Structure formats: structure tokens, C-alpha cells
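Re: the 214-residue chain
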Amino acid sequence: MVAGGVPVRTARKNAPPREDVLVAAMATIAERGLEGLTMAGLGRQVGMSSGHLLYYFRSKDELLLQTLEWSEASLGAERRALLSRRDPVGARLRAYVDLYVPDGPRDPHWTLWLEVWNRSQNAGPQERDRQAAIEGAWHRDLVALLAEGVSRGEFRPVDPDRYAARIRALLDGFSIQVAVGLPGIGRDDILEHVREFLTDTLDVPVAVPAPAPE
């Protein structure tokens, strides 16, 4: 069997570590956007032919999905670390939001997410399951955080699963606006909007003291 005109055994021997390819793909997206990421160009960066890359990743769609999974693994470790702190639950929730929202227009992670979402229309069931697994990890961590806040009396008694679905929809909508660079709204604006929403919907209201008897 051959890949790109080279025996498969040789291709495997000469291939760089898989992670090197994913790092190079993400770096290219950060520097030149998705339009700058081609199989031929990526192959030149890592010393492989486009045929070799296609042997390992089968398609550009698969390369993008694996790059997203690799990036999410790093974000997931960071997210778990910040959620395991001993800070008040509200502080950890704000840290979760800060990690979720893109850094600014053309944020490479969000650029990649948007492209994978767009291509998911033609994805197979296995690829859709992998995308759902990424979404599910963010959702489960948020549900656990909300449940902890409710149990400790820091948050109002909301349904953690339903509230998590709503806050993530809010975050996604705002984040897309920042990631694509819509004028008039930036990262700081989004964080302020979300802080106000969390305060209005989650913070336990301060009890108003009863009037003193006359």
C-alpha cells in the first residue's frame, strides 16, 4: 500500500508526531486564518507531503476536527484546574465565562470551532458524536458548578441543567459576534453583559429587613 506515491511504512517512519501537525495547524490558523491553512502548506511546515497528511487524517474536515479536539484537551485541563479552586462558586463561574469567551476577532480556537460547526452539516454520525463530546464536557462542568452554587446557597435555586443550557446559548451568541469581528461589541462588553445577567438571575437577593415596630 502507498500513500502519496510513498510506501506506507516509509510514510509512518518519516512522519512527525501527530501533535506536531496539530500544533502547526493551530499556529497557521492563528497567523493567517483558515484561508491560510492548506494541506500542501501544512505539509511543507512539518516535512510531509499533502498525500501523507491525507493518509493520516483522511480529509481536511478530519484534520480540523482533530485539531479542535487537541485544542479542547488543553482548554479542558485549564477549565478543570480553575473549577477545582477553593474560591467562592461565583468567582469560579466568572472564570469559566472568561475562559469561554474568545479573546477577540479571529480567535484561533473560535475560528476553528465555527468552521467545524459549519462543516458538521455534512459530517457523519461518528464525527457528530465527537463534536457533541466536546460540547458535553463544557456543559457538565457548568452544571456541576451551578449545582454546587445552589447547594451552598450562593445562587438562587435554579435547575442547573436547564440554566446551563441557557447560559451557554447566551455565551455562544455573544462569542460568535466577537469571533467574527462585528463592530460595536468587544470582549469587555460581552463580559459585562454576562456579569449583569448572572447577577440578575443567579445571585441570592439580599433580604430586606422588616420595618421596626412602632
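The beta strands are 2-3, 6-7.
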